[in-house]
Amino acid sequence: MSVLDGLRVGFGEDAHALVPDRRLVLGGVEVPSLRGAAAHSDGDAPLHALADALLSSLALGDIGVYYPPSDPAFENMDSREILSRCLGTLHSRGAELVNAALVVTLDTPRLGPYRADIVRALENLLRLPPGRVGVGFKTSEGLAPNHVQARATVLVRVR
Ligand code: C5P
Ligand code: MG
After folding, report:
1. What predicted TM-score, i.e. pTM, was given to this entire model?
2. What distance in angstroms lies between residue 91's CA and the mean position of ligand 1's atoms?
3. pLDDT tens column, 146-156
4. To test the ligand 1 pocket, which listed residue (111, 119, 141, 148) has its Cβ within 8 A of the most ligand atoms?
5. Alpha carbon distance 38, 24 (integer Å)
6. Long-range contacts made by residues 123-127, C-beta under 8 angstroms, separation at least 24?
7. How do residues 63-106 score in pLDDT, each as one tens digit?
8. Residue 114 main-chain phi, psi, to 5 deg
9. Which atom of ligand 1 lies closest to the CA of 136?
10. Which of 106, 138, 143 best tests ligand 1's pocket when mutated (most atoms within 8 Å of CB)?
11. Of the bound ligands, which one is closest to the alpha carbon of residue 26?
């Protein structure tokens, strides 16, 4: 018997090009920006990365398998809905989310002022109490000025 019994880690990643005249939505929070994510959907890279992380924790593939953007039913699906469905998939398999950690890489705008809003939005979406969602921001140091990237890990406990 090990303390690690029943624990699973998940990892997910997503990126979108930044283009004019699009909204920049990160973790369900709209951030004022001259450019937003080029995408069929709302292009919420953090939510897509978290959804993939949830699925990967139970080796269930990624959101493209379940919600293919080529399928008109999912093309414009709200990313919050996708994340909520992935959480439901975990619950239906007897698993529960322990915590989530996210890093968003973006050169501009600065995201620090929105951290508290993004954390609160993710706590609500993931149904986690305060202190279980970590959100970090990084610039690419100018190496990737035209895209927004998100990476997420989750810890899951299987009952
Ligand atoms: O990537 P770098 O080390 O330059 O980030 C320095 C600081 O800038 C970090 O504290 C990070 O939270 C913040 N940051 C930010 N908004 C971004 C990128 C980084 O507030 N878009
Ligand atoms: Mg740095």
Report:
1. 0.96
2. 34
3. 999 999 999 99
4. 111
5. 9
6. 125/27, 125/28, 125/47, 125/80, 125/83, 125/84, 125/87, 126/50, 126/83, 126/87, 126/97, 126/100, 127/87, 127/97
7. 999 998 788 877 778 999 999 999 999 999 999 999 999 999 99
8. -105, 0
9. 12
10. 138
11. 1
Type of residue numbered 155 = L
User: What does each C-alpha distance from 85 to 1, 5, 23, 153 come to in angstroms?
Assistant: 32, 25, 23, 18
Cis amide leading into 109 (omega within 30): yes
Which top CATH class is 7-158? alpha beta
Instruction: Tell me the C-alpha distance between 52 and 148, whole Å.
Output: 17
Q: Are 69 and 41 in contact (CB under 8 A)?
A: yes
DSSP reduced 3-state for 136: strand
Radius of gyration of the chain (CA): 15
How is residue 65 written in tokens?
């398998």
Q: 115 CA to middle of ligand 2, Å?
A: 17
pLDDT of residue 66: 92
For the chain, the structural domain boundaries read: 7-158
